[in-house]
Write a structure and sequence with these properties.
Number of strands: 9
Bound molecules: coproporphyrinogen III
Shape: globular
Structural class: alpha/beta
Strand content: 5-15%
Distance between the termini: 17 Å
Order of helices and strands: HHHHEHEEHHEHHHEHEHEHEHHEH
Strand order of the largest sheet: 1-4-5-6-7-8-9
Radius of gyration: 19 Å
CATH topology: TIM Barrel
Helix content: 40-55%
Mean pLDDT: 97
Number of domains: 1
Largest sheet: 7 strands, parallel
Length: 341
């Protein structure tokens, strides 16, 4: 698989391509099947449907990788935090405010809650073309902590950050417990056949710089060590979104194969600042993809040229947005594959 070669440090031209949230509401075939299962969690936990929507973007675009259809909020769901998805609002959870509410999960293995995800992985791996990599994923401890403390998405993360400043010792303990929960979720997916693991720290940018070590770098490295101890030896992509110059320490302290960068990170800077043996994934602005045309082609060329001398996986800087015209993704792929081919 070209995708795995790139993660192992081998450049390939043109770069392998996939896009974050590639199975989703911008695709009419996704919306059609999504309607058949009104509850989003039940949809994620239906292996046949999860397999089908995972493969939809591969059938349409022949991406180099697919990502198993599931969600980072399955861990809070397994912790019985009353996770629901409200149309036009987004995810809602019961707000967690005390250490006690989470401490009870320290000694509880939640792996058996993810059997349906494991089955979806197995089925998808059997169905995908051999050349297409299958990515398993989880939310990172800090990002999961924000959903638990805010009860959903947030603009300022005030509950989580206030807790961190007021009770740093407990916040560190919570992150430790969540790191174990993330490991359980990833191990289920690894055992059923994913080829790559990815960690989404979508709200890492909300961590005050002083706390990056405790909330991001150390727990991510600890997660890798837990996986290693369990003999899980898969390439690992991490997306510590929004940490800017923190990426330098990240790359030094966390033994990942690939770092995903958001669209606000200058690719020229990232290429110079990050060790050359680490692959970089990214980083077209999702709204540039919505715009399309020459503007998009120029930006794609700029990104690819920045990473001309290192392993690079082409992706967006964050998830594809629902208003994206599907034909712009075809234009993106045709442009990249003919440009270098
Ligand atoms: O192709 C894929 O990437 C599909 C698998 C996938 C989903 N969510 C499905 C999904 C992945 C990798 C995720 C990750 C995820 N989920 C993240 C990290 C990535 C990021 O975007 O930062 C986060 C923060 C979540 C939490 C989440 N799930 C939110 C905030 C929402 C609502 C916002 C929205 O886009 O509607 C979801 C729901 C969700 N997860 C949808 C999909 C396709 C849309 C819901 C629907 O179809 O009704």
């Amino acid at each position: 698989m070209r995708f795995i070669d790139t993660l192992s440090g081998k450049r390939s031209d043109p770069p392998p391509i996939w896009i974050m949230r590639q199975a989703g509401r911008y695709l009419p075939e996704y919306k059609a099947i999504r309607q058949t299962e009104p509850d989003f969690i039940s949809f994620c936990l239906n292996p046949d449907k999860a397999c089908e929507v995972t493969i939809q973007p591969i059938t349409r675009y022949q991406f180099d990788a697919s990502i198993i259809f599931s969600d980072i909020l399955l861990i809070p769901w397994a912790m019985k935090r009353n996770v629901r998805f409200i149309d036009g609002v987004g995810p809602k959870l019961d707000i967690l405010s005390s250490f006690k509410d989470i401490e009870i999960f320290a000694d509880k293995d939640l792996s058996n809650k993810y059997k349906a995800v494991g089955n979806a992985v197995k089925l998808t791996r059997q169905t995908l073309p051999a050349k297409t990599a299958l990515i398993g994923f989880s939310g990172a401890p800090w990002t999961l902590m924000t959903y638990l403390f805010e009860g959903g998405s947030s603009r300022d993360f005030s509950n989580t950050k206030s807790f961190l400043w007021q009770k740093p010792g407990e916040a560190i303990e919570i992150i430790k417990i969540l790191t174990e929960k993330v490991a359980e979720f990833l191990i289920v997916q690894a055992k059923q056949g994913v080829n790559v693991l990815m960690l989404f720290d979508s709200w890492a940018g909300a961590v005050p710089a002083k706390w990056r070590d405790e909330m991001i770098y150390k727990p991510h490295q600890r997660l890798l060590e837990i996986l290693q101890r369990k003999n899980i030896d898969l390439p690992f992509i991490s997306f510590p979104k929004g940490i800017g110059e923190g990426l330098i320490n990240y790359a030094n302290e966390v033994a990942i194969n690939c770092i995903a960068i958001d669209q606000n990170t200058d690719p020229l800077w990232a290429n110079c600042a990050l060790p050359s043996n680490i692959a970089i994934q990214g980083n077209l602005d999702p709204l540039c993809l919505v715009t399309g045309g020459q503007q998009m082609k120029d930006e794609i060329s700029r990104i690819i040229d920045c990473f001309a001398d290192r392993p690079h996986i082409f992706n967006l800087g964050h998830g594809v947005v629902p208003q994206t015209p599907p034909e712009h993704i075809q234009d993106l792929i045709d442009f990249i594959r003919t440009k270098a081919g």
